[in-house]
Amino acid sequence: MNLRSLFVAGYIALAAAGAHAHALLDHAEPRVGSQVPSAPAEVRLWFSEPLEGAFSTLTVTDASGRRVDRGDAQLDPSNKALLRVSLQAVAPGAYSVHWRVVSVDTHVTQGDFVFRVGG
Ligand SMILES: [Cu+2]
């Protein structure tokens, strides 16, 4: 095998690994679409892959689009696949969670979901 074919084989192996490493939302707390009895102190999202914290965002808005998170979204220090943000003391109602994350393979994924507080 000459140098050029070695390089091509390595590139193909990297591309194949990357195709399976997108960060998908595995589960969340509060759970996607759930209703919780009282305002949670924070929102936590667990992803299928480790994230690049500097390029990953997580915000929470109320029904009128106003931010209710404290702007402190960060990866959990002991779990790079767990993104968390703390919340203001929110009233009963519907809240939207918006996430846009970069996995360590540099691929971007994003999504939204709603949870409800109170009856
Ligand atoms: Cu990927």
UniProtKB/TrEMBL annotation:
Residues 1-21 form the signal peptide. The keyword Signal applies. This is Copper resistance protein CopC. PANTHER family: INNER MEMBRANE PROTEIN YEBZ. One of its GO terms (biological process) is response to copper ion. Residues 22-117 form the CopC domain. The keyword Metal-binding applies. Gene3D superfamilies: 2.60.40.1220. Keywords: Copper, Metal-binding, Signal. GO terms for cellular component: cell envelope; periplasmic space; plasma membrane. One of its GO terms (molecular function) is copper ion binding. InterPro entries: CopC/D, CopC_dom, Cu-Rt/internalin_Ig-like, Ig_E-set. SUPFAM superfamilies: E set domains (SSF81296). It is found in: Cell envelope. It comes from Ramlibacter ginsenosidimutans.
